[in-house]
């Protein structure tokens, strides 16, 4: 009997260990709706920092303090949580920076998330401030003009041209800021927030607040099953297996 129980626990442990999501996901709540954010494994320093802050509830009740139509919506300034109306925001943050993880294939397509930064030469990112890209769609001729005038002759790759002529985005930011995730759902909330009325500092006249919640291990597994065309697993046996693991998970 003891041997059978041992084998059973080993089997349970093996199954539970195998059930692990491939990415981290965050539920983004706003007054304009909710979205699901996928964080890239290719930018582990930004990914892990964002996961840490989301788990701590750092972003809850912060504002989108800088909003520019056809460009982006920016948040993550801790000073925005209790800021009075019409106060200029954007200078708050944490006491450390994240090393740049800029990659040529992680571009500023509409719906991606990038890390804000100051003008430091190493292009290190703010530890807390981020932006969701809205941008706009470009014609091929418009991209030609962008290369010539805004990008000083630097050529866009075929991937960039395809993305910016179909999905849209902000190509002139590529190579200058770290892109570390993308919205899987809810991209329309970026459009809704991007058109709100703002003051001379680009701060919305009506506060647009944020809340971030990291998806649990089971929620992330079921989300990935959904995108594979599979049914979610929420049976009693699944919950029993899940009880042997922590609520959250670590990606190496």
Structure write-up:
It holds the Pfam family Pro_isomerase. Belongs to the cyclophilin-type PPIase family. One of its GO terms (molecular function) is peptidyl-prolyl cis-trans isomerase activity. The chain is α+β, with helices and mostly antiparallel strands and 252 residues long. It has a domain at 22-134 and 174-230: Cyclophilin-like (Cyclophilin). It has seven helices and ten strands. The strands form two sheets. It has an eight-stranded antiparallel beta sheet. A two-stranded antiparallel ribbon has the order 5-7. The longest helix has 17 residues, at 2-18.
CATH topology of the domain at 22-134 and 174-230: Cyclophilin
CATH superfamily placement of the domain at 22-134 and 174-230: Cyclophilin-like
Major sheet attributes: 8 strands, antiparallel
The helix count comes to 7
Distance between the termini: 37 Å
Could you give the order of strands across the largest sheet?
3-4-8-6-9-2-1-10
Signal peptide: 1-18
GO molecular function, one term: peptidyl-prolyl cis-trans isomerase activity
InterPro entries: Cyclophilin-like_dom_sf, Cyclophilin-type_PPIase_CS, Cyclophilin-type_PPIase_dom, Cyclophilin_A-like
Domain PPIase cyclophilin-type: 33-211
